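WARN retry 2 of 3 for item q-0093 after timeout on previous attempt; input resubmitted unchanged.
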Amino acid sequence: MAQFTAADFRLLLDQTCSLPHVVPPALALLSHEPWIGADAYAGDLLNAVLGVRGEGQT
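OK item q-0093 returned
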């Protein structure tokens, strides 16, 4: 995961793949640049993180 880009994290978040492993490094990336653009628009990684639902949420 050390070589993952913002676009990689956004894709995994959108597909809800391995969230316990994806969210922490995505948050670390966002802590340095909150409005980083993954591949669609400025802030799309932040939007993807904010869209993550916890277990049991619908």
